[in-house]
């Protein structure tokens, strides 16, 4: 029987069936960060339990870390307390911690792949919904709650019901100026923020075949925004080339054996999918969100939806709610909307290629007056790579602030926050009310180059026009 | 570990209407800087409940007549957004013992079950009926019956599904999986031995 990657990985990690019909699933790789794990360690201590496989849990610090302050103690005592707590727990239980001093700290979903910890055919869990990112390598990776973190620490397993699998084919060729971010924003727009509930998404077709690992990570990262707990791309030569020579990648004979094994996990031709969706690359344009969930997106050439033209009652109400919060005019073009802040970073778009693409186009240009623009590498290693290439200088000359690695303005847990109802062009993944730190702050999600175009012109713009993309 | 068998919740209810109420709304991210969950309850729905100066905004949870409610009603896709358990924890610490909505986001649903909070899925019309009844009389006793998958209130009753796996876990006192998972440690090691990447 031909099987999908999901089924193969699931079967290889299924320990046994529990009384409630769920599976006790082995979690091969467990990633933790400072926000969701301290409580889990507390539960572990309360129950007097040990960590079952300390060598399979890896920790880093990302959410609360200030990106403009390198020395501790941090200005925010709560942030410092979380940091201390994680450090203490890792030392107590013998867990590897990519602390700042190691030079390998960063957003957990950037660190895992960068270190070669994220590998095909594995199961990966982390107390963070964007764990789906790691699916880019052909792993089954998903977010878990704090109690489940405790379960993984104590037993290296969790109780989970099997997901269905939806294959999403995107065929053809992306047009110039259209990025992985636009692909996933388009998918979420088409299938809805709930469309993936109960599913893992398998992304396939020419568009994903051609993507780099960093692009695949951008897509898989936002699977959860479409309701899919996990999303993955089958491993191929691109995957193996990325992993070769990374610190945790196998070497020598073990490398060859691993590649052979990884290949065997790819979905078989003719395997069963619970659902199949076909999309055309040619239909995807640079996409911008106008609302308060990642599914509320339009192409840069479209106008903001008008609730009066909504067909369903539900749709009308949600457009009205979104526009009232976003203070945007129905029917107006999204292009030209004035922005206050531009943010390039996060686990969605905070990797080397994101900054390379932006630097290539903003070189010699200036951020518009009155716009606060910040660029935040997703990890210390990404930061150093950028600095070696002089990208930081290009960005700073253009008027961006260049920061230290962390989640930064993706969410409101560190000093990088919106103020009042500032409108932010953001390369992150969530535009929920208050997400960027101010209860009235407003977020427009888009690709890094679209953020750069907005920063340069001071308003939402078509990066293809601003930077003459495609003609050079 | 023996856990309580959760077969039904009886108490007063309050409705926080709206669809797609995400976890950032349930508990704004800035309140998640904590090393324990104690004390999260007071920040439940904070940004929609409180003005910047800490005074109350109009919100059902601020209305004295709904104080002490243990059953929370809402709309579709409740609990979407982040996987953080802070949201169900805040709901539980505030005093809620059950949530009734049209449907729930996946991770949120799982997190609730693990805390022993049953999540009931009812039709929009039926939720409106319950909301009407509590609007007329906030003191009306609402019984959220996990075993029979129904909500009873003021002489009426509506169907409200609790997904089979969750229902089974709640009714049989198995909603926290840790006991069973620990029992499977031997089997875990057998499975792990077949996976080369797990070698120490
Ligand atoms: S960058 Fe944003 S989405 Fe990613 S892990 Fe950090 S806070 Fe979460």
Detailed description of the structure:
The complex is a heterodimer of chains A (about 475) and B (about 200). Chain A has 17 helices and 19 strands. Chain A is of the alpha/beta class and about 475 residues long. A 5-stranded parallel beta sheet of chain A has the order 5-4-3-6-7, sandwiched between helices. Chain A has a 5-stranded parallel beta sheet with strand order 17-16-15-18-19. The longest helix of chain A has 17 residues, at about 75-95. Chain B is built from 8 helices and 8 strands. The model of chain B has no long low-confidence stretch (mean pLDDT about 95). Chain B has helices at about 25, 45-50, 85-95, 105-115, 125-135, 165-170, 180-185, 185-195; strands at about 10, 15, 70-75, 100, 120, 140-145, 150-155, 155-160. Classes of the chains: A alpha/beta (about 475), B alpha/beta (about 200). At the A-B interface, β1, α2, α3, α5 and β8 of A face α3, α4, α6, α7 and α8 of B. The structure holds iron/sulfur cluster. Iron/sulfur cluster (SF4) binds near residues 128, 407 and 411 of chain A.
């Amino acid at each position: 029987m031909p099987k999908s990657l999901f089924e193969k990985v699931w079967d290889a990690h299924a320990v046994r069936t529990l009384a409630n019909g769920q599976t006790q699933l082995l979690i091969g790789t467990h990633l933790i960060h400072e926000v969701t794990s301290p409580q889990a360690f507390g539960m572990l201590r309360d129950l007097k339990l040990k960590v079952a496989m300390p060598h399979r849990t890896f920790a880093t610090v990302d959410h609360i870390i200030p990106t403009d302050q390198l020395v501790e103690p941090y200005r925010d005592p709560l942030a410092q307390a979380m940091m201390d707590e994680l450090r203490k727990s890792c030392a107590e239980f013998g867990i590897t911690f990519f602390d700042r001093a190691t030079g390998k700290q960063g957003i957990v979903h950037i660190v895992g792949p960068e270190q070669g910890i994220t590998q095909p055919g594995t199961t990966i869990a982390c107390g963070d919904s964007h764990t789906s990112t790691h699916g880019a390598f052909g792993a089954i990776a998903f977010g878990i709650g704090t109690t489940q973190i405790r379960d993984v620490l104590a037993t290296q397993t969790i109780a989970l019901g099997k997901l269905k699998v939806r294959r999403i084919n995107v065929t053809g060729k992306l047009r110039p100026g259209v990025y992985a971010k636009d692909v996933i924003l388009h998918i979420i727009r088409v299938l809805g923020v709930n469309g993936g509930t109960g599913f893992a998404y398998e992304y396939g077709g020419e568009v994903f075949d051609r993507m780099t690992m960093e692009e695949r990570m951008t897509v898989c990262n936002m699977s959860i925004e479409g309701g899919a707990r996990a999303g993955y791309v089958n491993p191929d030569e691109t995957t193996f080339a990325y992993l070769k020579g990374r610190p945790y990648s196998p070497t020598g004979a073990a490398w060859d054996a691993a590649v052979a094994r990884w290949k065997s996990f790819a979905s078989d031709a003719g395997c069963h999918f619970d659902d199949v969706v076909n999309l055309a690359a040619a239909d995807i344009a640079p996409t911008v969100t106008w609302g308060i969930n990642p599914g509320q997106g339009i192409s840069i050439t479209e106008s903001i939806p008008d609730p009066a033209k909504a067909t369903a009652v539900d749709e009308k109400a949600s457009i009205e709610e979104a526009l009232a919060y976003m203070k945007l005019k129905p029917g107006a073009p999204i292009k030209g909307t004035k922005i206050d802040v531009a943010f390039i970073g996060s686990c969605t778009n905070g990797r080397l290629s994101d900054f390379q693409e932006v630097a290539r186009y903003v070189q010699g240009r200036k951020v518009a007056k009155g716009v606060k623009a910040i660029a935040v590498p997703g990890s210390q290693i990404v930061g150093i790579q950028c600095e070696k290439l002089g990208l930081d200088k290009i960005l700073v000359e253009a008027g961006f602030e260049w920061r230290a690695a962390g989640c930064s303005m993706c969410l409101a847990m560190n000093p990088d926050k919106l103020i009042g109802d500032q409108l932010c062009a953001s390369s992150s993944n969530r535009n929920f009310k208050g997400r960027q730190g101010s209860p009235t702050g407003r977020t427009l999600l888009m690709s890094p180059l679209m953020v750069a175009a907005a920063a340069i012109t001071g308003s939402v713009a078509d990066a293809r026009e601003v930077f003459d993309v495609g003609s050079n | 570990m023996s856990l309580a068998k959760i077969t039904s919740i009886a108490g007063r209810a309050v409705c926080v209407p709206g669809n797609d109420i995400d976890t950032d709304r349930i508990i704004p991210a800035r309140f998640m800087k904590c090393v324990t969950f104690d004390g999260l309850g007071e920040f439940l729905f904070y940004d929609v409940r409180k003005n910047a100066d800490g005074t109350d905004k109009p919100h059902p949870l601020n209305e004295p007549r709904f104080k002490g409610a243990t059953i929370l009603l809402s709309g579709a896709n409740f609990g979407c957004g982040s996987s953080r358990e802070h949201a169900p924890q805040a709901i539980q610490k505030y005093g809620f013992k059950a949530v009734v909505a049209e449907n729930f986001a996946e991770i949120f649903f799982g997190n609730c079950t693990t805390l022993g909070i049953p999540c009931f899925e009812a039709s929009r019309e039926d939720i409106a009926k319950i909301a009407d009844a509590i609007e007329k009389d906030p003191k009306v006793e609402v019984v959220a019956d996990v075993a029979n998958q129904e909500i009873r209130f003021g002489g009426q009753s509506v169907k409200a599904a609790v997904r089979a796996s969750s229902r089974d876990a709640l009714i049989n006192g198995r909603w926290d999986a840790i006991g069973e998972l620990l029992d499977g440690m031997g089997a875990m090691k057998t499975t792990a031995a077949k996976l080369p990447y797990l070698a120490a």
